[in-house]
């Protein structure tokens, strides 16, 4: 389970411990000083609410019916077969990985891509792989990743990928970060849905 999942589970366990303490003292008919229990309870609830969306994603990821480990392994291997200019470096194995990823459920492959993009190691290559795969329904999640973790180089790749949605996401990022988009050569390292 990722850090996000643990950040939600720990407050839940703390909240359950406080609830157990309260019930134990209520059973013994002791009076309880609600000051610190209340404060900790509020902090736990805030933490749970804040982390709940990510926790739900983690649970869905862990419960998916297809083999998540195999998909992640293919994504990592595929990213390792791309250099910093989006060129394939593993010969025939690159085409094999690309084909295998195309056969899986696009939602699961997209989830694996997004999970790997969140790690700074090989982030650029994972984004190249995402663009090259051109999976249906992945564009929205890729734009979310761009908005949260984007940089100028990533925006250029999105703007010039051939995907209308990635271009729109790149324009939003550029506007929000004070960049002006100029016509010109730009980055043409990866194209949407093209090996």
General description of the model:
The protein has 195 residues and is mainly alpha-helical. The chain has two domains: 55 residues, no CATH class; 109 residues. The chain is built from nine helices and no strands. The longest helix has 30 residues. The chain is elongated. It starts with a helix and ends in a 19-residue tail after the last helix. The N terminus is likely disordered.
Q: What is the molecular shape?
A: elongated
Low-confidence stretches: 1-5
Distance between the termini: 32 Å
Q: Count up the domains.
A: 2
Approximately what portion of the residues adopt beta-strand conformation? Answer: under 5%
The count of helical stretches stands at 9
Query: What sequence of helices (H) and strands (E) makes up the elements?
Result: HHHHHHHHH
User: Quick check: average pLDDT?
Assistant: 81
**Any idea what the radius of gyration is?**
22 Å
Percent helix range:
55-70%
Structural class: mainly alpha
How many β-strands, per DSSP? 0
- Could you describe the largest sheet, including whether it forms a barrel? none
Quick summary of this structure?
69% of the residues lie in helices and 0% in strands. By secondary structure, the chain is mainly alpha-helical.
Give me the secondary-structure topology.
Layout: H1 3-27, H2 34-63, H3 68-80, H4 92-103, H5 106-117, H6 123-133, H7 139-149, H8 152-159, H9 164-176
Jot down its keywords.
single chain, 195 residues, mainly alpha, 2 domains, 9 helices
């Amino acid at each position: 389970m990722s850090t996000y999942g643990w950040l939600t589970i720990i407050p839940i366990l703390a909240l359950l411990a406080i609830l157990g303490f309260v019930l134990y003292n209520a059973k013994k008919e002791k009076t309880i000083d609600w000051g610190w229990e209340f404060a900790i309870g509020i902090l736990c609830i805030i933490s749970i609410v804040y982390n709940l969306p990510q926790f739900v994603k983690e649970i869905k990821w862990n419960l998916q019916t297809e083999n998540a480990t195999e998909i992640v392994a293919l994504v990592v291997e595929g990213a390792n077969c791309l250099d910093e200019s989006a060129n394939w470096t593993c010969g025939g194995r690159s085409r094999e990985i690309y084909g295998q990823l195309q056969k899986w459920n696009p939602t699961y492959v997209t989830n694996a891509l997004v999970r790997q993009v969140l790690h700074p190691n090989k982030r650029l290559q994972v984004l190249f792989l995402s663009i090259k795969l051109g999976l249906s329904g992945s564009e929205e999640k890729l734009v979310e990743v761009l908005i949260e973790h984007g940089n100028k180089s990533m925006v250029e790749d999105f703007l010039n990928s051939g995907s209308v949605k990635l271009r729109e996401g790149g324009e939003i990022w550029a506007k929000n970060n004070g960049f002006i988009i100029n016509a010109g050569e730009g980055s043409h390292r990866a194209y949407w849905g093209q090996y």
